[in-house]
Write a structure and sequence with these properties.
mainly beta, OB fold (Dihydrolipoamide Acetyltransferase, E2P), 2 domains, four-stranded antiparallel β-sheet
Length: about 160
């Protein structure tokens, strides 16, 4: 969990924030200051973010002035269930070719070794096999999206 007295995450990044999220957090803080927002809670599949202004005093007109000091709290949510990750970097696809059905969809039960998608790397299509048996709860990347080694692709429902 990262905290900062001024809302900035520091010049060297933030513990607890995924790479690349620091600039987004700073933009949210600036929007809060401009809009007079005293608190903001944001949750995605993998990140929970809470921004709260210190010394915010509610004015008579209902507008909350935001002082320069903000507390930033970020936590990486531990997803429930198994996660299938990318074994290489490349472009992830859910279907074997455009216009064809996806290998698996949310709600499908998969078995170890079953293809859940492909990753195109250097013009080679690499099938991605399931490492565990389970039910697909959600896709964590979109078809056609570039992925990195170890990036979560699919979350399976807890059993």
């Amino acid at each position: 969990m990262a905290q900062s007295d001024n809302g900035a995450s520091g010049e060297h990044g933030s513990a607890g924030l995924p790479a690349g999220l620091t600039a987004d957090v700073r933009a949210l803080i600036e929007m809060m200051a401009r809009g007079g927002i005293a608190e903001l809670n944001l949750a995605t599949g993998t990140v929970k973010l809470r921004l709260r202004a210190h010394e915010a005093v509610r004015a008579a007109n209902g507008v909350v002035p935001v002082g320069p000091a903000l507390e930033v709290t970020a936590a990486i949510a531990e997803p429930e269930g198994a996660i299938i990750t990318a074994p290489m970097l490349g472009t992830f696809y859910r279907a074997p070719a455009p216009g064809e059905p996806d290998f698996v969809d949310v709600g499908d039960t998969i078995e170890v070794g079953q293809t859940i998608g492909i990753i195109e790397a250097m013009k080679i299509m690499n099938e991605i096999p399931a490492e565990v048996t389970g039910t697909v709860a959600e896709f964590l990347v979109n078809s056609g999206q570039p992925v990195e080694y170890g990036q979560p692709l699919v979350r399976l429902a807890p059993q």
